[in-house]
Amino acid sequence: MHLLLAGVLGLAATAAEAQRAAPAPPKPRSGEGVPAPPKPQSGEGVPAPPKPQSGEGVCPPAGWTLTRLDGLKQDGFKVPDTRQRHELAIALTGCLAHATPEIRDGIAFEALSTWMRGGQLELATLQTLRGDLLTMMSRPDVDGFGSAFAALVLAEVARTDRLRAWMSAQERDEMVRAGALYLARVRDYRAFSDAEGFRHAVAHGADLMLQLALNPLTTKAQLDHMMLAVASQVAPEAGIAYWAGEPDRLARPIVFIAQRKLHSEAEWQTFLSEVTDPKPLASWRVAFASERGIKKRHNVRAFLLSVYASASTSDDPGIRQLIGPVTAALKSVP
After folding, report:
1. Is 258 in contact with 322 (CB distance < 8 Å)?
2. 84 CB-near residues (< 8 Å, 6+ apart)
3. Which SS3 state, helix, strand or coil, does residue 205 take?
4. 152 and 113 Cβ atoms separated by less than 8 Å
């Protein structure tokens, strides 16, 4: 997998260099490039909120208490005041790194997901969230909560762009490359504990890849980049055995990349041959001679079986194209 990670890192470096050399894109004029945000359905005549400021990383946000946030959750995260809702959305990113799962996952993530899926956040707020969360996702994170949950919320941001395009091609490419780099670089494999709840960095990174893969505006080259990132985490060199659904989450973006029908059967065979490479084992025949080998075999087969289950039960011709290559791949890992 060293070559796969090198491929992700190399593409990211190339993109960063190109971005530094390129002039800043002009701001789109009204009605050009980026669709105008939807008008509020209620409260006609209310002035548009000012451009939100980046979150300060404070939790609970200024003016809020944890008790009040819990009450907001009990009320379905209803914030009728447009300006207050948008300001709170930005501020809640500071709670994504909170050590308490009921706050990090149960309030911050659920609130942001609820508002984005309900179309309740303006374009300016989504743009601020995108920038703040990309920074948060790439930041060193010893505790492992903030970066993983930034990736999860970025999946929700990417979903809004998938349903109604608002990012520029450059912004979307940055999302692809940053997300792929994050997933490939994950080395914190803590998934869940009763005391601390979820971290689940691999699964959350895969969720971001899924939303970007589903976007019809992502290119084949970008899909290839995401495939490399997924492949790098199918059987991590850390020698861990997945147990919290990671193979299924890694399989989903691959299945939906296949649905795009941009890759040939030969390309899928090449991809799966990388995934099933037994190295550093001499061959799969010696997998049962070591704990590391058993874990690697477990992870690879769990991923392949998840892809096979989706492909063999789908009616989509693009997804069903995976059946032959993944069947052969399973036979190669006895």
Report:
1. yes
2. none
3. helix
4. no
Provide the H-helix boundaries in the chain. Answer: 2-21, 66-74, 82-91, 101-103, 110-117, 123-138, 146-163, 169-185, 201-214, 220-234, 246-259, 265-275, 291-312, 317-320, 323-332
Residue 16 has pLDDT above 70, yes or no: no
Query: How far out from the chain centre does Cα 126 lie?
Result: 16
The pair of structure tokens assigned to 79 is 């914030």
Among 3, 25, 5, which Cα is nearest to 174's?
A: 25
Q: How far apart are CA 230 and CA 297, in angstroms?
A: 17
Residue 198 pairs with which residues in a beta bridge? 192
266's tokens:
């030969």
pTM (two decimals): 0.85
Q: How far is CA 57 from CA 60, 200, 240, 324, in A?
A: 9, 21, 32, 48
DSSP secondary structure code for residue 194 in this structure: T
Residue type, position 153, single letter:
V
Residues contacting 303, CB < 8 A, separation 6+: 234, 235, 247, 250, 251, 275
Long-range contacts of 192-199 (CB under 8 A, 24+ apart): 192/244, 196/99, 196/101, 197/100, 197/101, 197/102, 197/104, 197/105, 198/101, 198/105, 198/148, 199/144, 199/145, 199/148
State the Cα–Cα distance between residues 140 and 43, nearest whole angstrom: 42
Kind plus residue range of the DSSP H or E element containing 75: none
**Residue ranges per domain, the chain?**
1-14+52-217, 235-334
Grade residue 51 by pLDDT with cuts at 50, 70 and 90: very low
**What is the phi/psi pair of residue 283, to 5°?**
-165, 170
Q: Show the tokens assigned to 89.
A: 């959305």
Question: Among residues of the chain, what percentage have pLDDT more than 90?
Answer: 83
Q: How far apart are the first and last CA of the chain?
A: 20
Which tokens go with 222? 């970008």
